[in-house]
Amino acid sequence: MPANTRARARKNVLTERRTPWGSIAFFTVVGLIAVAAVTVAFVRSRPSDAGKGIAGLVVKDDLSQNHTTGPVTYRDSPPMGGDHDPTWQNCDARIYTAPLRNENAVHALEHGAVWITYRPGLAAAQVDALARRIRAVDYSLMSPYPNLDAPIALTAWGRQLKLTDANDPRVDAFLSAFVKGPQTPEPGAPCTGGKDAP
Amino acid sequence: MTARRVTVVLAALLVAVVAVLPALRSGAAGPDGPEAGFARDMSTHHAQAVRMAMTVRDRTRDDAVRTLAYDIATTQSQQIGMMTAWLDRWGAPKTDPRGPMRWMSHEGHAGGAQAMPGMATPAQLAALERASGRDAEVLFLRLMIVHHRAGVEMARAVLARTGDAQVQRLARTMVRGQEAEIALMTGMLRQRGG
């Protein structure tokens, strides 16, 4: 074999495109680990999108929150927010058996409470099921609501869900999402020290 | 050639490690862990202490009791804020509709806040709101000693269950601070013939 041919042959060995499987596998693994880690970190650091996925949830933003001792006409029934009385209704896992004044209850919503209302005449077993939830959850209150257009309404500031069954899993979903939830206009405000009777 | 490849590999590893680190660290405490349960339940527990402290300040003119109550109300309000900020950062709900104290007992308490150790009953709270002067002081001290003992127990319980440095620090200050206040209140109660 002539010298130049031998040199070309050696060169060919060096430049030959042999697939570097080892490197490909290595970098693929490293890359996958990096992608997985970034994804996990991203998912964990993302604030929970409160209430997303609760079917039938009504959302209302930009509600006013002035204090007034006079009566307020609310657009929604029960009201989801708006101007309200300077005194909040106590909402320390509280069950009221008589209807509340809207203007005080709305102030409890401002403090991060969830207000469960039901149409008078709701079956006792249904009322009991709701009461069990209220007793387990600080920053919640419950009261009958005459002329309610659904058997049950769950209300937080700017968030509302109307239901027909107290055992609907959306009750727990709503409570988890909105008790002292991100919609709260006045986080840290109390559920005691306010109005203690209907 | 080889040196460059080594550099590339090291760089890739560095990127991977840097990316993994925050994920591992935030894994120290999360929405479903004992830390979140503690933050939720201790917030409820503290809120009642704040309420009782505010009440007794309205019911007595005794400087020692009013100062202690001021201390408890402001401190525990601040601590509720700290624990709420943890829950926000962890993306954790502020309530557990299945009931409080599951992180300690592994089972739900349908009884709600009343099932939480050391909590005053609605009747006891009403009695405190009606009492005045020495009677209010004695009742407050008795209720708050029981309340603090349970608070210490809950803080010790989370210390036994968490590796999160921030949670450990606050829980330790609760144990020490409330134990010191229990000693103080026991003395004050004795002085008042309680």
TrEMBL record, chain A:
Keywords: Membrane, Transmembrane, Transmembrane helix. It comes from Actinomadura rayongensis. The chain crosses the membrane at residues 21-43. It holds the Pfam family DUF3105. This is DUF3105 domain-containing protein. It comes from the Bacteria.
UniProtKB/TrEMBL annotation, chain B:
Gene3D superfamilies: 1.20.1260.10. Transmembrane segments: none annotated. Residues 35-189 form the DUF305 domain. This is DUF305 domain-containing protein. The lineage of its organism: Bacteria, Bacillati, Actinomycetota, Actinomycetes, Streptosporangiales.
